Amino acid sequence: MRTDNLASRHSMAAALAVGAAVLLTYTLLCSAIKVDDVDRYWYELGTNRFFWDLGHLWMQPLALLLYRASGDVLGVNHSLEAINVISVALGCAVFFTTLREAGHSTLKSVAAVAFVAASFDLMTLGPTAHIKLMVFPALALTLHHALRWERADAAGQSTLRHQLASGAWAGLSVNLLVSVLPQMLLLAVFMLIRGARRYGLAQTVRRMLPYALALAVVGFGLLLAAYVVARQSGTTSAQDLLGFTLGGLKEKEDLHVGFPSLKEMPLRFGFSLVNNFAFLPSVGTLGRAYLWGWLADVRPVLPSLLGQALLAAMVGALLLATFAVGARQALKSKAEPGLLSPWAFVLGAAAFSYYYNLNDPEHWFQFTMPVALLALQLRRRWLTIWLLCIATPVLLTVNLVGYGIPKARFALAERQQALQTALGMQGLYVGFAAYPGEPDSSLMDTPGLERFNIDLVQANEIKADVDALLAKLDEHVDAALARGGRVLVFRALDDMDWRGPVMQVALAGLPRAKLHAHLAERYVISGPVDAGGFPAYELRALDLIRTRASP
């Protein structure tokens, strides 16, 4: 008994040490750059008011409650960062415990946690105020108890406690991030199929009731609690729970961009899954632009593309090998327990991500833990070596050196001032508002500086009327030049930059070639020039150039 207690304390200490290491690393990687929805979360916490989004029902309200409980000791931004970083650390600590309980050595478990923590999507979201990783510990605990449930069931032991725990954490996960719901449902389906082979369908359904009830009670209970709090706080106009739910579903579905094409979706899914693990800054966007005939010459960026292609091939082959061996092993009638749980999480994440078909990091990090767990649970020495001795150090190096460290060291205030100086108070910034996933001038806060964001104007003001957009752009450029201001165009004229939202703008009727041809007719285009550390193209009036050139 004393030996068991000592082993338990050692295991807990090791898990806490792993979590602390992740916490320290991610804290050091925190950046001043505001990723994706961070501005919205800043505003929501700053208003001290609940905001309800059915896609992430309790995420913002729970963050607000934690912020209130902290007494604003850290301020809005650092409070959000702390929530996110602590969530990653807790999830990794739980995952370490899961691996140890599954019989993997301490060294393997630590290396697997490093693989998870070094994955590109976690590194993108984790050291920021983008709080969607609040769901990470709940996901890790759901997977942890699902694996316990699966092993206990195979050993003929009672599964009640594990089913209740897994279902409860699953219900909380869904209320934090609805995209994880397919994972929870597939877990039930897989365990139902496995149990039906041993006990028959009717008995298996009865045996699985604890999981189903826990998931339903916690999931619906938190939905009901959200509606009650929303009504009491005056943060919803819905008159009943059904309206509250359906209104949120419609709002979420309105964001769905739809199926691009049956041919493109598998390619997009495959790339996004690989990109979840590896930093691939341009291979996807340039590859798609090339396939669509928008990239005339790929030779200037060929060395970079080849390096990224090799990295993508290594990760893609690892994933294919894991899935191929895992599928063959799981389909065996006497498959070793511990494969169905990670498979349910992998395929559940795939079901949502394939449908939603966006490459946003929050739609893909759900793959990370179950993929690593599945690869180790197959207990193939060559696969373990590939995962932990090759992929992990490569991804750790590439993702840290290529993305994590440069983003953490990005001197936002100094770069904003340099950009402001380059344009002057009379200047005009022409570019995009959307965040492309890397440090970009669109993130700069430049008060008083006029901006013409092509993507926002196209989407909100002129509704894809290209002629109207170009006419509106000309008005702003001419006005800036008339007052003696400098006009700089960021990204929109760079032939090698096809990151979002350049592609979306092109698909909506304004490809780069058309924009360049239009501007070249009316202005002199020079550059690229450096503006705040970013390349930009300068527009000057044709008449002024002609006047200077005349004798």
From TrEMBL:
<feature type="transmembrane region" description="Helical">
    <location>
        <begin position="339"/>
        <end position="356"/>
    </location>
</feature>
<feature type="transmembrane region" description="Helical">
    <location>
        <begin position="383"/>
        <end position="405"/>
    </location>
</feature>
<feature type="transmembrane region" description="Helical">
    <location>
        <begin position="208"/>
        <end position="230"/>
    </location>
</feature>
<keyword id="KW-1133">Transmembrane helix</keyword>
<protein>
    <recommendedName>
        <fullName>Glycosyltransferase RgtA/B/C/D-like domain-containing protein</fullName>
    </recommendedName>
</protein>
<feature type="transmembrane region" description="Helical">
    <location>
        <begin position="106"/>
        <end position="123"/>
    </location>
</feature>
<feature type="transmembrane region" description="Helical">
    <location>
        <begin position="305"/>
        <end position="327"/>
    </location>
</feature>
<keyword id="KW-0812">Transmembrane</keyword>
<keyword id="KW-0472">Membrane</keyword>
<feature type="transmembrane region" description="Helical">
    <location>
        <begin position="82"/>
        <end position="99"/>
    </location>
</feature>
<feature type="transmembrane region" description="Helical">
    <location>
        <begin position="168"/>
        <end position="193"/>
    </location>
</feature>
<feature type="transmembrane region" description="Helical">
    <location>
        <begin position="273"/>
        <end position="293"/>
    </location>
</feature>
